[in-house]
Amino acid sequence: MLPIRDCVQQTPGYVPGEQPQTTDYIKLNTNENPYAPPDEIFDSLEEELKKVRLYPDPVSTKLRKAASEVFGFPYEQILAGNGSDDILNIALRTFVDPGETVAFLDPTYSLYETITKVHGATIKTIPTNDKFELDSPLICPEAKLIFIASPNPPLGKHLNRQYLQETCEQATGVVLIDEAYVDFSDEDHWEFIKQYNNVIVSRTMSKSYSLAGIRVGFAISSLDIIKQMDKVRDSYNLDRLAQTLGANCFQFQDYFQDIWQKVRTTRTRLITSLRNLGFLVFDSDANFVLASPQWIEAAELYNKLKERKILVRYFKHPRISNYVRITVGTDEEIDRLLEVIEQLKNEA
Ligand SMILES: Cc1ncc(COP(=O)(O)O)c(C=O)c1O
Question: 197 and 121: one domain?
């Protein structure tokens, strides 16, 4: 018998959205940015590629300094991760012993559950209300770590700020506010880092900076917390290409801000159009929307769209089994999605 830990054996593992191996799909299933980053970010890549023989900078200095300019915190208060998933794992291993408690909402980003289980920690979930929002602060005195995303998937709305504030205030452990989608909204939680000594904000370049394929994320927190987390990360956790492309992307703020605005404009149109097509759709602060078709089962809609080469996300989770989550694509992609949905509705 192999000595596989019980907690690993009993975990199905994380189920990511499909990444088809062909390019003939309209991909609206994993919240990637539909717009490519500017070509100029690749200019310095050749020089980096010549250095692949050498290990990368273990502490991602240039990237963290570039992030510091944008985030407005000293780079010593920023830790770089191989995607923000890496940051979540580092936080878990820094603050939680196996057997101790980690708290998060239900539903939320499903990776929190997977990594907590694999770590052998105890999970405490706090259900959101019917509208997938908070009715009160997330209080869990035994939690060493609280993962809380705002905007929170799969709804994509920011959580109530006052409740979030009270969550941080009352927590006895560390609160990690996952801001993966924050650039598509008007709010952020930077001030929480200044206000509370137990708060980490995580950020990713996967969504708003169009770098999902490269894997760059960050933790921003107090010096004390970042110092401890830095001991836990893999020694060379970001490769050369990730460090270079991440730092380069930060130089194109105007370009990315235009893209974020474009996504927000398309999002508004998508929500209105889906409502007109008989969907229950929530407002969103992210680059995706959660929508429930009222004239077809969500699972069937997912399958029919897939047959027509459009991928959206369907979750078997009981709270959202009659919803699909749709990433905001380009205008052309959304036009095609709406056209197909209209045909399906006419056939229903
Ligand atoms: C809430 C949330 N946090 C983090 C991530 C992961 O981001 P990254 O690509 O930086 O690992 C996702 C990805 O879907 C997400 O939805």
Answer: yes
Give me the domain span that covers residue 155.
39-252
Question: pTM for the whole thing?
Answer: 0.97
Which residue's alpha carbon is nearest to atom 7 within ligand 1? 84
- What confidence tens digit (pLDDT) does each residue in 104-149 have? 999 999 999 999 999 999 999 999 999 999 999 999 999 999 999 9
Per-residue model confidence as pLDDT tens digits over 68-83 = 999 999 999 999 999 9
Q: What's the Cα-to-Cα distance from 28 to each of 65, 114, 306, 314, 333, rounded to whole Å?
A: 33, 23, 11, 11, 9
Quote the ligand 1 centre to 53 CA distance (angstroms).
30
Structural domain count of the chain: 2
Same domain, 116 and 229: yes
The CATH number that applies at residue 94 is: 3.40.640.10
Q: Could you tell me where the beta strands, DSSP code E, fall in 65-117?
A: 78-81, 101-106
214 and 343 share one domain: no
Is 207 in contact with 183 (CB distance < 8 Å)?
A: yes
201 and 266 share one domain: no
Neighbours of 139 (CB within 10 A): 14
Residue with tokens 């905007």: 151
How many Å apart are CA 268 and CA 207, to the nearest integer?
A: 18
Whether residues 49 and 175 share a domain: the answer is yes
* Binding pocket residue ranges, ligand 1, CB within 6 Å: 31, 83-85, 109, 149, 153, 178, 180, 204, 206, 212, 217
